[in-house]
Amino acid sequence: MGTISHSRRQHSPHRPPRVLLVFPFGSQSTREILEGIGEYGHGPGQWEFLLGSESADEEEILNRFGSDANGIICKSCNPDVWARLERVNLPIVAVMTSHDGSRFPVVRDDEDALAELALGHLRDLGLQRIGFLDYDDTPSFRARCLQQHAKSMGMAWHWFGTGTESAHKPWTADERKIADWARLLPKPIGIVTFMAVQARNLASACRLAKISVPDEIAILSVGDDLACRLAIPTLSGLDMNYRRLGWQAALTMDRLLNGLAPTKQVFLNRATRVIQRTSTDVMHTGNPWVAAALKFIRDHLEEGIKVRDVVDSVSTSRRFLDNAFRKQLGHSVHQEILRQQVMRASKLLAESDMLNADIAEACGMVDRTRLSVLFRRATGMTPSEYRAEFGMRRLYKR
Q1: How far apart are CA 301 and CA 361, in angstroms?
Q2: Fold of the domain spanning 18-108+242-271
Q3: Residue 31 pLDDT > 80
C-alpha cells in the first residue's frame, strides 16, 4: 500500500493546490460540507480536489491519494486515521471531530448553541421532559452537553443509545428496543436525535408502539435532510449550516497552504434555526393563556408589539399572564418578546443580505440602534460581528 510522505510539499505557483478530502460518503451533512469546501475551492485560486469513490473508506483514500496532496481536510471517526495523520507533515484541517487537543485546527458544531436552540424550541412547546436518542451505547459528548443544559433549564432528562452500527442504518433490529424505551417514557416528552436517520427510526418505533407523534412524543432531529421530509409524520430538524462549516474548513486550509496560522484553533459552527414540521407542531402548555399568548407573539412580532398588546390579546391581567409565563417558561412576557426578536434577527443576519435597519423592522424593533443594543446584550456580539461570523455573505472575499 502507498504511504504519505512525511515532508511538507509546497504547491507550485503554476499549478493549483491539490487538497485531499478524506470523508465518509453517504450522509447529507457530508455532502453539504463538501459543497461548502467546493464553493471556496472553486473561487479565486482554483483548487484541485482529490477524493475517493463513495465505497472507499478513509484509510483507502489516504493510501491512494495522500502522496499527491498539498493539504488534507479530514472528517473521520476512526482513531487509526487520526493517529496516522499525526505523523504527516502536511497542512491538515479536522472536521467535526473531538480532536480539539491535537495539533490540527478543528471545525465542528457548537454544541452549546445547538443545545440552547433545540431545548429552547421544545421548551417553547411547553415540554418539561427531554429525551435524547444517541448513536452509541454510552452518552456522546452531544448528549452530555444537552443534559447539562436541560438540567440548568429545570427539564427532566432521559437517554437511550442504539449502538454505533444502528446510527447509519435506515431500518434496524433496534427499532423494537427504541419502541420499548419510548413506551416507558413519561409523557408528553420531546426527544432530540443525534442525526436525521435516527429521528426517522424513532418515528417508526412510535408507530410500532402506537405512540402519537407529536401529541405524546415530539421529535427533533439534529440536522435536516431528506429523511426528515420523507418520514411519517414529517420531522422537524435543526438547520446545522453545514455548507458554511465546509467553507470555514476550506478557508482555514487556504491559510495553512499560504503559510499562515489559522485564525482559531477550534472554529465553532452554529445551528441557525429550527425547521418546524409535523413532529413538533404541538403546544403542550397546560395553560391556554400561555399557548395563545405565544402564538400571538409569533404572529405579530414584526408589528412592534408590547406586553400590553399580548395581555389584551388573551383578555387577562398582566400579573396573571406574567406569573403563568414564569411558571411554564421560566421568564416573563417581556423577556419572551425580546427572545423571539433576537431569534428572528439571528436567522435574518445569518441567511440574508438585509440591511440592519430592515432586520430591525422585521423583528418589531424601532430602529437599528435598538437592534444593536438588544442583540449585543443577548449574544455578546454586534449584528455585524454575528453576520461576519455566521453568515454566508463573504463566501468568495478572502
Answers
A1: 10
A2: Rossmann fold (3.40.50)
A3: yes
φ, ψ dihedrals at 38, nearest 5°: -65, -40
Q: Which CATH class is domain 288-390?
A: mainly alpha
User: Is 328 in a helix, a strand, or coil?
Assistant: helix
Q: What is residue 178's predicted lDDT score, i.e. its pLDDT?
A: 94
Q: Do domains 18-108+242-271 and 111-239+274-280 have the same CATH topology?
A: yes
Strands in 13-91 per DSSP E: 18-22, 48-50, 71-74
Selection from 91, 102, 97, 55 nearest residue 76 by Cα: 97
Whether domain 111-239+274-280 has CATH 3.40.50.2300: the reply is yes
* Residue range 376-390: mean pLDDT, rounded: 86
Q: What is the largest CA-CA distance in the chain?
A: 76
Rg (C-alpha) for the chain, rounded Å, is 23
- The band of 194, judged by pLDDT with boundaries at 50, 70 and 90, is very high
Domain extents for the chain? 18-108+242-271, 111-239+274-280, 288-390
Amino acid at 107: V
Q: Measured between alpha carbons, how far apart are the two ends of the chain, in Å?
A: 38
Cell 443534559 -> residue: 147
User: What would the pLDDT profile of 252-283 be if each residue is shown by its tens digit?
Assistant: 999 999 999 988 888 898 887 888 888 998 87
* For residue 88, pLDDT beyond 90: no
Please tell me the predicted confidence (pLDDT) of residue 397.
Answer: 42
- Measure the CA–CA gap between 143 and 97, rounded to whole angstroms: 15
- Give strand pairing partners of 273: 239
Query: What does the block give as the cell for 101?
Result: 487537543
- Model confidence over 108-127: pLDDT tens digits? 999 999 999 999 999 888 89
Grid cell, residue 110, equals 457548537
